[in-house]
Amino acid sequence: MFMRHSVASKTAQADRRQFAEDVEYYLSQTPRQLPSRYFYDELGSALFEAICRLPWYPITRTEQRLLSMHAHDILARVSPLSTLVELGPGDGGKLMTLLGADASRALTVHLIDVSPDALDAATHAMDDRPEVVVVPHQAMYETGLAEVARHGRSDGRTLVLLLGSNIGNFDPPDSDAFLRTIRAALATRDSLLIGADLVKAERDLLLAYDDPLGVTAAFNRNLLVRANRELGADFDVNGFAHRAVWNAEASRIEMHLVSARRQRVRVPDARLDIIFEAGETIWTESSYKYRPGDIVAMLDRAGFSAADQWTEDGFALTLAEAG
Predict the structure, then answer these.
(1) Residue 11 within a domain
(2) Which residue of 19, 38, 198, 282 shows the fewest CB atoms closer than 10 Å?
């Protein structure tokens, strides 16, 4: 028990050091930024789950419908499947929807996420599937994929899930590089199932990222709460407003935190003492939106061949095979 606690403590300390280093680097940039991966502490993960239930954020519900409608086809196309890897599993609901198409399938499932709470929830979602061996990896996606590779290959095929339009969190060069990383972790005829949000009316996009209940605003501002708690920062959370912007030229939604006045912020653990001018922003997230053909072309550049694509209500689910 003591050893497990000791290892966990060392991991938490390393994560906090990395958080401090990233805050120091990104808040010193022009424009100032904070990496979106730090949204997902315990509170942030809970707020994101709430966002997924909002009527203005249909991504999760639409993807669930597509998975439910096409699960049999997907599993048939990747047969014989022995290993499944999900990048960012959330609460495990989408994985259960997909696997519900074949309740007797024996699999090894690798779950990769930076959030321990998400990993716990997704792992527990599989409790009623004794034929499934679940291996959680609390890690960045690239690190987790490398850990999966060290487990060795089984006789069957591997399917990687990248759902929830997570690919949209990468800038175009980074999304190409990340898909190539996934491809390098797979053998020929292994598969990738990718969910991506599509370009739609600006009003609908803005409502999804600036909802009338203010849940997304709380999710965004929780980055400051986390910096205060973990790094000794003194952000006045009420001194920063949430702003969502549709950048049509770049085909992305941008989330920002906007300083309401001239104010001084200290972040001792990140060795920062900053003056924010009124209206100055911290860029916290980019969420890229696609057209169906963009997704196919992106996969092709990374060494995948699109096998099928299903679209509904401004969302696309694409199954691709490693060439």
Answers:
(1) no
(2) 198
Distance between alpha carbon 81 and the CA centroid of its chain, in Å? 24
Instruction: Tell me how far CA of residue 82 lies from CA of 19, 85, 149, in angstroms.
Output: 36, 10, 14
What is the C-alpha separation between 194 and 283, in angstroms, rounded?
26
Residues 272 and 300 in one domain: no
CA angle 288, 250, 175 (to 5 degrees): 45
Q: Is the pLDDT of residue 312 over 90?
A: yes
Number of domains in the chain: 2
Q: What is the pLDDT of residues 98-149, one digit of tens each?
A: 998 666 678 999 999 988 888 999 999 988 888 899 999 998 899 999 999 8
| 176 belongs to a structural domain | yes
List, for residues 14-65, the tens digit of each pLDDT value: 888 999 999 999 999 999 999 998 998 889 989 998 999 999 999 999 999 9
- Model pTM score: 0.90
Angle at which helix 42-51 crosses helix 116-125, to 10 degrees, equals: 60
Same domain assignment for residues 274 and 318: no
**Separation of alpha carbons 311 and 74, rounded Å:** 14
Per-residue pLDDT at 204 exceeds 90: yes
Query: How would you classify the pairing of strands 132-138 and 240-247?
Result: unpaired
Instruction: Indicate if 190 and 216 belong to the same structural domain.
Output: no
Range of the domain at 140: 59-200+290-322
Residues 231 and 256 in one domain: yes
